[in-house]
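FORM 7B: Structural annotation worksheet

SECTION A. Query
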Amino acid sequence: MPTESLGAEATVTRGDDLRRIAAALDRVAAWLQSRPQDSGAVEFKEGDDPVTATDRGIDALLHEALPVAGEGWLSEETVDDASRLACSRVWVVDPLDGTREFVAGIPEWCVSIGLVEAGEAVAGGVLNPATGQRFLGAVGCGGITLNGQPARPSERTSLVGALVLASRSEVKRGQWERFAAAPFTVKPTGSVAFKLACVAAGLADATWTLVPKHEWDVAAGVALALAAGCSVSMLDGRSPRFNKPAPTFSDLVACAPGLTADVFASLEPAPDVGSAGRR
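SECTION B. Predicted structure
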């Protein structure tokens, strides 16, 4: 397996990375099971994004469980530390992706853990505690797993009859109306990370964003999609790069490998974009 040196005293393998991600998700799952099912008080951050004590509690658990000396940290619920920019390995996490769904009791929220090396998403884990689904995988390690069993993306080569996952918020704002007559089914779904994981595991055929996203929204899902062999890129064809000073993406497209041409054809002209971080 690929290796990455962490100074003179330690070498970590991709298998080690996956075990660390799995152990962190185990720890979060146990913590969530020990708590009442209600979310508690909801606060609102800048941009009207909700946050709860559960978001912050998971963030603290992951920060304690994941990074070691020499590794960076980027999380939605932690004040950004620019020292991450000097790190080759950076953990990019969203402790609770889909807080709106969590608060509303919709089972489409997840814990999202991504590992970035030299700007590329290389390993990821996504846990949906409400459904019990756990996606885990790393680039170059033979694909991904869903609940411990091998999973693979859809084999579709046409969008006719395909299932495309859309942001529930984007659909509510009318941004998917242009696809009303498209030959595929659009399913509003919460959590960007969960949508990407579903595409990676073949539970859906494609997903794309119509507003900008932050790195923590998509790092784990991108790693899973790439590990599964999916097509993942920006609308201009560039590969997504992570651990940037301004950690946002203007857009992102992920689909089964045989759907790339159809997906990009359906997205012309490029959609309008809104404010970063909405999902």
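SECTION C. Observations
The chain has a mean pLDDT of 90. The two ends are 35 Å apart (CA to CA).

SECTION D. Sign-off
Analyst initials: ____
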